[in-house]
Design goal:
Radius of gyration: 15 Å
Strand content: under 5%
Order of helices and strands: HHH
Distance between the termini: 35 Å
Largest sheet: none
Amino acid sequence: MAVIKINKLMKKALPVIPADKSAEFIRKANQNVVSKEFIEMCHKSAQRFKKA
Protein backbone atom coordinates (compact mmCIF):
# COMPACT_ATOMS: atom_id res chain seq x y z
CA MET A 1 0.00 0.00 0.00
CA ALA A 2 2.82 2.40 0.78
CA VAL A 3 4.23 1.96 -2.74
CA ILE A 4 0.88 2.90 -4.32
CA LYS A 5 0.67 6.05 -2.17
CA ILE A 6 4.23 7.03 -3.13
CA ASN A 7 3.45 6.51 -6.83
CA LYS A 8 0.37 8.75 -6.59
CA LEU A 9 2.40 11.44 -4.82
CA MET A 10 5.13 11.21 -7.46
CA LYS A 11 2.58 11.69 -10.26
CA LYS A 12 1.18 14.77 -8.51
CA ALA A 13 4.66 16.15 -7.82
CA LEU A 14 5.94 15.75 -11.39
CA PRO A 15 5.95 19.11 -13.16
CA VAL A 16 3.99 19.51 -16.37
CA ILE A 17 6.34 21.21 -18.80
CA PRO A 18 4.83 23.30 -21.62
CA ALA A 19 6.49 22.78 -25.00
CA ASP A 20 7.89 26.33 -25.18
CA LYS A 21 9.54 25.98 -21.76
CA SER A 22 10.84 22.42 -22.20
CA ALA A 23 14.11 23.49 -23.86
CA GLU A 24 14.75 26.01 -21.07
CA PHE A 25 13.89 23.35 -18.47
CA ILE A 26 16.28 20.85 -20.08
CA ARG A 27 19.05 23.47 -20.17
CA LYS A 28 18.60 24.18 -16.46
CA ALA A 29 18.41 20.47 -15.67
CA ASN A 30 21.61 19.87 -17.64
CA GLN A 31 23.43 22.57 -15.69
CA ASN A 32 22.27 21.15 -12.37
CA VAL A 33 21.90 17.41 -12.76
CA VAL A 34 24.10 16.02 -15.54
CA SER A 35 26.08 13.30 -13.86
CA LYS A 36 28.11 10.37 -15.07
CA GLU A 37 25.31 7.95 -14.11
CA PHE A 38 22.69 9.95 -16.03
CA ILE A 39 24.84 10.05 -19.18
CA GLU A 40 25.55 6.31 -18.94
CA MET A 41 21.85 5.57 -18.45
CA CYS A 42 20.97 7.57 -21.59
CA HIS A 43 23.74 5.84 -23.53
CA LYS A 44 22.52 2.37 -22.49
CA SER A 45 18.90 3.15 -23.38
CA ALA A 46 20.03 4.54 -26.76
CA GLN A 47 21.90 1.29 -27.45
CA ARG A 48 18.77 -0.71 -26.61
CA PHE A 49 16.76 1.31 -29.13
CA LYS A 50 19.39 0.70 -31.82
CA LYS A 51 19.25 -3.07 -31.22
CA ALA A 52 15.44 -3.21 -31.38
